[in-house]
Amino acid sequence: MPFTAANHYEFSGDDITGTVDAHRSAGVWAAQLVLSGETLESTDVTRSDLGFEVRTLVKTLSDGNRTHLLIVLPRVTIDTDDGQDVTFTSYAVLYTVHGGSSEQHGAAESYDVRSLVGTASLVQ
After folding, report:
1. pLDDT digits (tens, 9 = 90+) for 60-80
2. For 15, which DSSP code?
3. Could you tell me the sign of the dihedral formed by the alpha carbons of 73, 116, 112, 31, in that order?
4. Among 42, 33, 41, which Cα is nearest to 15's?
5. Contact 97, 65 (CB under 8 A)
6. Which residues, other chains included, contact 56 with Cβ-Cβ below 8 Å and sequence gap of 6+?
7. Which of 4, 20, 72, 105 gives a 20 to 30 Å CA spacing to 117?
8. What is the C-alpha separation between 46 and 54, in angstroms, rounded?
9. Which residues have CB under 8 Å from 38's CB, separation 6+?
10. How far apart are CA 13 and CA 90, in angstroms?
11. Which residues pair with 118 in a beta bridge?
């Protein structure tokens, strides 16, 4: 059984949908994300010990608060003999970094963890 790394991911859950693809000729990963109906720009896809990390800035507020989205996807291998898609579960973290002075009382960040489900496939 020969195995090949998946190069196309589709996922959704908790008001998040997206796709992550490897560019066929360059091997560069690109992501398209939608959060609460809003398409997010300037995504960054990196490979880490967690799998693939997809990061983007959601918004910056005038008070210095910044909200980010981190999506973690597992690395998946596909059996090239049968070519079946692989279903996976994962998670996203919508997190806010609270701006202003580091001397203010309270947590510097807040987190909203969301569950995702998806499929990984090999697109020729």
Report:
1. 887 788 999 999 999 999 998
2. T
3. positive
4. 33
5. yes
6. 31, 33, 40, 41, 42, 43, 44, 68, 69
7. 4
8. 7
9. none
10. 10
11. 11, 88
